Amino acid sequence: MNKVESLGTVITTDVLILGAGGAGLCAALKAKEQNVDVLLIDKMGIGWNGQVPIGGGILAYVYPEYAEKWAENVTRQSFFFNNQDWTYQLGKYMHKSTLDLADMGITFFRNKGELNILNWGPNIYVTLFDAPKSLVALKKTAKARGVKMMDKIYAIDLLKNGDTVVGAIGLGLTDGKTYLFNAKSVIVATGNCGYMHEKTYSSVLGEGAAMGYRAGAQLVNAEFSSSYVWGIKVLGKELMGIHFYLYLENARGEKIMGKYYPELMTGKHSVYTFDPRVIDAMQKEVKAGLGPIYINLTGLSDSEIAGLAEDQVEGLTHLMGNDTMKLLREKAGIDPSKERMEMWPRYLYSGGGLRIDINGMTTLDGLYAAGGASSNSWSGGGGGQGGLGVQSAAVTGFVAGENAAKYAGKAKLLDIDFNQAKNALDRVMAPMQQDGNTDAYDFAYRVHEAVVPMKYNRQREAGRMKEALGIVQDARNKLSRVGAKDFHDLARYHSAESMTIAAEFTYKAALMREESRAGHFREDFPHRDDKNWFKWITIEQKNGAPRLATLPVPLEKYKLQP
Amino acid sequence: MAIRNFYAEKCNGCGICVACCPMDVLRLDEKAKKAVVKYPKDCVACWGCESFCPRGCFDVTPERGRGELVSPY
Fold first, then answer.
1. What is the pLDDT of residue A395?
2. pTM over 0.90
3. Cβ contacts (< 8 Å) between A237 and chain B: which residues?
4. A227-348 is classed CATH 3.90.700.10
5. Under an 8 A CB cutoff, do B70 and A492 touch?
6. What are A404-429's pLDDT values in tens digits?
7. I need a labelling partner for A342 at 20 to 30 A (CA). Which of A176, A446, A541, B70 fits?
8. Residue B4's closest chain A neighbor by CA?
């Protein structure tokens, strides 16, 4: 037994992928095309994890001949704040990625055999797919093509040899084994941080960004893309469906959306569950003393309610509007056709992630990232529409998979550095030595008090954000009292810690950005300030602490100029 | 309350609930070929197990196993 093997079970591969949601599976399938060994691991069961299976089954689509124009529109909407290289790549890739996903086994809504592209607004196109079964289909294809997989492995730190990433530490949740994965390249595809607040997105807790940060990779855009969704209070669950906004009313029974957005009340619009206009309207009404906000579907039949979810698709599994109505009846004892239901905004997830280049590579050698764990600034605040989360996961997954495999094809497998691995493992295992009786989850919920209230996270202001940071720090301090009895507990501990890191970075970057733009709104700096803030904020570990810096948007290198 | 009822007699140990649980609440008893609700307090009531179980073994209520929800306002 060599020294490293004394630390745990060593498994070697060419490309190691952490996280098997949409991005991870796409990365695995694309990497395998290069004929390298690919190992995909996940803390849950592969085929069922991530945000794709529980999402609405909407995939954004851009016609190839419109891709340039699409990228140009995003660029203008974002006031040139986007990474244009990535915007153009994403726009051009969407047609191919859609065909690739169909080829890899995902069931799409079709018309006479052809993919059915739906028009959901001015220049907004989507396709619909069978979300609940989509990743099981990709898994089947990946397995048939020789991708190796391991379920119920909780990855929590990266292994390095010098400055190069050479693998990851994984906790075997069911077998209790410690794994040391040794790879030529690693892709982090563990999603963003949902803080287990919006229930259905509870699997993503920020572990990827946290482990990348600890390894020395750079994060970017932590202050952007914090999103709220609107949901049914009693269920603690979002309400998916593009037409439900028409039925939102205040305590007096007045419809609220037309008050603020009259243009939405005529013609056909798709107002999806995380549309900021709905959250704005709800917040304004409550502030004016007209809350709470309700959804009033009384008098509508089940099929009429189901029809509000979106264009109904025969043959696709639905866990959306109609399923929610069933839950209301069976679980909360509410009949939606007879009584109105209270709605409130729910915090969905934080933004930012590991900064990636046009090839999906992070700032660390051997480390790639995709999906919610990565940040490529393609949007910069422009181009919002339903289905872009899935499409962006697919495209960043394909890009990272292809390039991580090419990298692995050329690189030599570097050994795990015993000392680095031992130090990382000592940190990971430390809560197992503690005798605490407190539970990590209690402190995880303390983080909600800092990230959920809109006074902290939506209408941002320096004093209040410092207060929120204080709550985060308190949660982190209390984590030191936690004792873990098994790997389940240990994983909960590290998830809670990852949540505190995500929240800390969001507020630190938001405090630094003394202006308002792209979903980051400061009451104390309410205007866009291109003179001082036409730059992205990066976060990197320096001497054990986060160091924030700025990176000017490299406009001179881009295609479009203001 | 979260997982209010788990009907073990219907379970055939297919493992889908274990795979889809985001909170690692469920485990598989390999010998008995049954799912086990091992960490009930950690359930966030996402309805994954209830939605995906092919045999209707789960009854999940809206409340989480722990953690009061903070108001957004």
1. 98
2. yes
3. 47, 62
4. yes
5. no
6. 999 999 999 999 999 999 999 999 99
7. A446
8. A331
